[in-house]
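Good morning C.,

I know you're traveling, so I'll keep this short. The sequence:
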Amino acid sequence: MDMQGILARQKAAHLRDGAPTAEERINRIDRCIRLLIENRTAIEDALNQDFGSRSREATAFTDVSGSIGPLKHAKAHLRKWMRPEKRKTTPAILGLFGAKAEVRYQPKGVVGVISPWNFPVNLTFAPLAGILAAGNRAMIKPSEYTPATSELLKTMFGSAFSEEEIAVITGGPEVGEAFSRLAFDHLIFTGATNIARHVMRAAAENLVPLTLELGGKSPVILGQSADLGVAAARIMNGKTLNAGQICLAPDYVLAPADKMEGFVDAARKSVSKMFPTIKDNPDYTSIVAQRHYERIMGYVEDARAKGARVVELKPENEDLTQQEHRKIAPTLILEPTDDMKVMQEEIFGPVLPVKSYRSLDEAIGYVNGKDRPLGLYYFGDDAAEREKVLASTTPGGVTVNDVIFHVAQEELPFGGIGPSGMGSYHGLDGFREFSHRKAIFTQIKKDIGPLQAMRPPYGPAIRKYLDGQMKA
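The tokens, ready to paste straight into the viewer:
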């Protein structure tokens, strides 16, 4: 496919047509919403095919409904977001005489979207909410790990949009590499940190601004006041949704030493309630590919070999070694050490290390000794303890007394920090991320004294002004 040609045509169309009106932006968003509603069953089928076994309800919840929400939010608010924003003048006296300062939000042009395999529909359409609200066109490169879904996306967008508006490019890693080298006006990449380094280098060739939505090891801190039953149910739900193949999945738990066994028991009960069986349970998702299955099982075997206690949460004690698909039971790794691979790499699977701590300072120190994570989760009712955790750690975002939920808040920016990402989107923050904030200053017409004093020949007026500025 001629990616350069498509980009050139989209850029030419952007220059030809100018910034779209609010009505045109809403029309594009409406077309996206209709695509999701009309293709719900096809999306469920495609993702089930790509994963081998994926819950239809989970797909409808995360990839379909979870995409419609951001699009509707953008549609409802974009007129307000598009309004110029008045600012105060400097020095203020100019404003008194009629000078004006404002920010106007202008479409950047063409935005590239590299979406991942774990939620390939949601992580295509959710960024599009901000991209289209800001008035841009888009080129999309979905993942080769979910080929049926990627081809479906290509068909869906092709049925509702011209190639000048939205184009989908499918293919393997070599196509993805070429895509990331295109001279977009902005590029958003969602995926692994190690791949993001290559994307960033490629984008640097054309100085393309980036939004990187990555991952990392998002910790859970169980406070002394945490309700273990509620905490375990919510943590294990987050860890088993999509079989833990979520950038924001809880990656490890820090628990008070005297609550370790209580948490293990509560986790076992919560898994038994959600998944009475695993092997043939359509609610329990498979690992997407064999190499990912082997990687995750390798973490478990490495931890076991190095002395960790491994607890498989299999209610019926099923034998999962003989199965059609790649299902891994929820597995706890108790008291892992830092030399274990499971504590060194993002897990992206239903394996959860649980590590004890003696003091809150110890837990915070452990988190701060690692790369800054995409998410952090605190459970407890102690306000002072909660505030200490919030003030002393620097994750991309936080959910208190649950996991993952901050990503669903359209009024909150979503993004990482450092190795977990850069830039943020969702709601107003997404509109601004994909807009050029153009600064405009309008000078007063009358050439008053203060303006004349700024031009040579310099005299007492400018010297008096400068003396006034040079004071603490």
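Safe travels,
E.
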